[in-house]
Amino acid sequence: QVQLVESGGGLVQAGGSLRLSCVASGRYFSISTMGWYRQAPGKQREEVATINESDVIKYADSVKGRFTISRADARNGYLQMNSLKPEDTAIYLCNVRTRANPNPGYWGQGTQVTVSS
Question: Which of 15, 73, 90, 104 could disulfide-link to 40, CB 3.0 to 4.6 Å?
Fold first, then answer.
């Protein structure tokens, strides 16, 4: 079993920045992919960015050039968000996929990001 804890959300003005963190804990697991997703009220969950064990990175078109996903090690990941826009407002959730649980993987509780105009 893998537990995920996200942090770093908050209220920021448009144009500002936030850095989200995701810490994974548990025993004997190997993360193949770590990703950030977001869900705004009334909208479907959206994939924001993913990074796999080979450091291949994917971004949603809406965040390219503004967000950066990274991993410090196997269990700590980050999402640097710059030039934030009001439409980035959402709950941001961390997801990790392991060899034992490639789909759907494990989800954190999420952290709220609110961008004011």
Answer: 90
- Identify which of 92, 75, 90 has the alpha carbon closest to the alpha carbon of residue 34: 75
Q: Is 86 helix (H, G, I), strand (E, B) or coil?
A: helix
Across 88-116, b (16+ Cβ under 10 Å) vs e yields: bbbbbbbbbbbeeeeeebbebebbebebe
pLDDT digits (tens, 9 = 90+) for 35-59: 999 999 999 999 999 999 999 999 9
- For residues 39 and 81, what is the distance between their CA atoms, to the nearest angstrom? 16
Look up residue 104 and give its two tokens.
Answer: 């759907």
Q: How far apart are CA 55 and CA 113, in angstroms?
A: 25
